[in-house]
Design a protein that fits this description.
Helix content: 25-40%
CATH class: Alpha Beta
Largest sheet: 3 strands, mixed
CATH topology: L-arginine/glycine Amidinotransferase, Chain A
Distance between the termini: 19 Å
Structural class: alpha/beta
Shape: globular
CATH superfamily: L-arginine/glycine Amidinotransferase, Chain A
Bound molecules: arginine
Strand order of the largest sheet: 2-1-15
Radius of gyration: 18 Å
Number of helices: 10
Strand content: 15-25%
Amino acid sequence: MNIHATLAEPSARPHLLMCPPRHFAVTYSINPWMDPQAWADRGGNLHAEAQRQWAHLHQALVSAGAVVDIVEPAAGLPDLVFTANAAVVLDRKVVLSRFRYPQRRDEEPVFAAAFAALAARGVVDDVFQLPEELILEGAGDCIWDAKRRLFWLGCGFRSDAAATPFLERQFGRPTLALPLAEACFYHLDTALCALPCGSVMYYPGAFTAAANATIEAQVAGEDRIALDLADAERFAANAVCVHNTIVLSSCGDRLRSMLQERGYAVVETPLAAFMRSGRSACCLTLRLDRRSDAAADVAREQTDRAGVVRAP
Ligand code: ARG
């Protein structure tokens, strides 16, 4: 399996960054899902399970039409697999992350080197550092909404709402802060997914009343897919959309039908080993090719959902 993509030319295929789980483990606890003792008790089995589950996820994404670039795993950085937290990327511009907890800070130079290499290959153009005082955990907390041409910014547990003006200056698009209210849903992508058709699936219970009001003000009723607790807890919001395919760990029948009615194929690929670290499919990927030119993106996805095959 060749997982090292080379992509010098812009491509219509969604382009993802992933990191194989060679050194993945739960060795510390920085969210309520992480239990290092439980991992240690079954470490060998769980590590093998993680390797298998990641390979299946990778295969599902490639089969759906994604191109995947790889960050080399690094010993001692078990959460490096969660590439969603590496950076915010839009229009070939990159804002590198700064992590809240010291346990993840050593990932920063690894991701910086990975983006320097992507820039050298022409995959991205400019790579920016955050101002000193700000914490921002990449696309895990900063989700691009192609339909509304804005970023949703999760804050309250990891990223700073104060990053809003900086992001608006860097990317020239509105950024709306959504304060999170529940420690189990500590990153925005644990509780919200903006789909290319304009629907937003989210778990209202993860957000403050003010954040729910912001979502309701921006997203029309028919575009809101509110998850119930069961789907929220099985990480259904932590989904990756590649053309017309939504890849997620698992979801209930009602949610699957709602997504199918909107024209998506739903692919379930179990990611239980990663859930022990606090999340699932979306966190294990970072989209590198998002463009703020929504019209192009949305038209492209709609063409895909209509079943028209485009040239690669
Ligand atoms: N153990 C990691 C942490 O707590 C999980 C990160 C999941 N990533 C995400 N984008 N939700 O930071």
